[in-house]
Each structure stands twice: as structure tokens, then as C-alpha cells.
Amino acid sequence: MPTRRRTRRAGILGLSLALAIASVLPMMAQAQGQCVATASGLRLPVGSTMTDGGNLLVAESGDGGAESGRISIIDRNGNRRTLIDGMPSGPSDVGDPSGPSGLLMQGRSLFVTIGEGDVAVMGPRPGTAFENPAGPSSPIFSSVLELFFTGRAEARTTGFTMTRRDQDALAKGKLVQLRDSRGNFMFIRMVTDLPNFTPSPLPDVPGNIHATNPFAIAGFGLSFYVNDGGRNSTWRVNRFTGAASEFASYPDIPNPLFGRVGGPVIQAVPTGINTVGRQLLVSLFRGAPFATGVSTVEILDPFTGAHSPLITGLTTGIDTAVERYRGRDNLLVLEMAGSGPFFAGPGTLLRFPNFGGTPETVADCLVSPTSMSLDRWTDTMYVTQQDGSVVRVPLH
To answer: Which of 89, 135, 271, 298 could potentially form a cystine with 307 if both were Cys, beta carbons 3.0 to 4.6 Å apart?
Structure first.
């Protein structure tokens, strides 16, 4: 989840007395039936992707302890194995663990974004941060890695382990080779190392910074596009040279609840990013107080950086996917919470027929979902949740 621009969800609201009314119970059963428990015990899952082998890969931010980041393999029966452990993790300036975040699978290469980790500490008031005086616990926070492994390794691995020495080697531009207990190999290189932060001095906080917080990644042509929830921007990265530049930025918007809760403006907080044809779809989560109706899905031109709203009126849009059903392309949108402020309702999965119009609610039984991945063979959506679980949602 976006760590720099949000607070933790206060918790799920308790059941009201109205839920005891018999007429409501069938509706509750129907909603719960939409979500089928698949896996649990993950370390704060953030991003996910499906492989050609039908496995779900999940990026886990860890528990904030050094080397607690992980990527797991989950099969269609819900069995979990470790792909790689020992990846960096650290407490962000707002306290949430930050580590492996976005995933993109292309061929046998898995591209992984690493979040901000502990490069920053909380400043004197909300919305401010300082450079961590102790320094970051890993040299590869705010980066993009490429992990290459074979289909045999995916099917049989007992898990690879990254060490601090490996992280140091990656930071120096070296190729790292790992071997598991069954003799499978994994090769890792750093694609790009983004700046950990940029100075953002304020009159009363001259040492204020904005940490770089890569959250999700998409590929188009010779470039990767990385959403940065800390700097409210999208980076464009050359996949061969690693050269990176801030490609698009997303401005603040007025806070519709100003005067009652929060400041005068809300930050954009880009989260999910996906390729659709010759365009990119960017989910703008929007920051506190997470008001109802302010979140959007933007169309981003991968050539010019121009962007405009495609879907409006969302609350906390965090990911998108496209399904093709009966000859029609539909846009699926995942919301961490369907109503606000401050995550007042359950997470929802919405379907926009032909990329517009009135949405259909596919599922409203989700608990702080963070990403989704479509298994096209089974017409099933796999959704990761902040509580460390994965649920599957049949789409039809």
C-alpha cells in the first residue's frame, strides 16, 4: 500500500444491530461468497502477477526488519512456496513496513520494485519527513531489480535467499547469482537505482524531504514505467541502460472535506499502473482523508507523458485489470475501500463495461486489498489483502 501518503486503516467497523435482521442475512452471505479464501500468512503483500505456469507471484513488504522482504509462489490450490527471501524491508517514515512492492513478469524475467524502506523518518508534523540520520538499512531501497529464473525453478524451487552481501553487490552494479537447495539458479541485476529522496524544504521544516517510493511497474516498448507514491509521479526507465527520469506528475486537488477533516488539498498518490494497448492506466489513490469520490483512473500517454481521467468518482482506486468477455473489453478497478473518509467501507472490485458507464460491483467482501491479478484460464481474479491473505473472486 502507499506508505507515504496515508495512515493505517483504523479497523473494520463492528457489526451493527441491523445485521441481525433476517432480510439482511442473505445479502451478507452472498457478499461473503464472492471471496474465496486462498492463502494466508503473507508478510504484508503489496503487488502480484500471474506467471505463464499458472502460479501467482506475490511481493511481500516484510515486517520492517532487515531482510524480511519476500516474494512467494502460490499455486491454484493455495499452496505457498518461497521464491526468494531475504529481500530488503524497513519501517517507512509513517511506520508501515516497506520493501518489495510492484511485480512485472516478462518471459522468464521478473521485474520488482523496491519501496522506500527506512530512508526517511517522521518529521515534526504530519506530511513532513527527514533523512534517516542512521542511514538506510539497505543500499537497494527505491530501485528496480530484474530476477531471471527458469520455468523449472518456478515449479520446483525450495526458495532462494538474498543476503546483505548480495544487496551490496547489486548496489555496485554487479550481477548476483543465487542457487537453491535443488540446484536451481536465479540471476539478479539492478535495472535502475532511483534517488532515495529529494529535498523539499518548508519555512518551518527546512530539512524536509520527499522519499522516493516505487509502488508498481509496467512495461511498454523499450521502457518501464514506475509509479512513485512518495513523489506523486511516474518514472520512465530505459530497460537496458537504467536511465530514469520523472515522466509524469500528478497535482494536488482540493480537499472536499476541508474545514471538517484534513488540510486544504489532497495529494495524488499514484499506485497501480498497467498497459492497455498503446496507453497506460494509472490509479490515483488520493491521500488523507481518503474522501469518497475523489480517486480516479488516468490514461497516461507513454510517449508524451500527457494524462487525463478515464474513470472518476472512485474512493481509493489501487489497481486495474482488463477482462475480455463475450467479445467485449471491460475495465476492472480495485478499491481499497469503497467509501470514505478513512476507509469507511469494505474493499470493492468494480467492472466498467466497455471502459465506462455505470459500474457493476463484482465483489464487496474485500478487506483492505492491495493488488489483483487475473487468471485468464480460470476466469478468476486473485486479490492480495493487507492482512496477509489472498482471496480469489470468480468473475462469471
So the answer is: 298
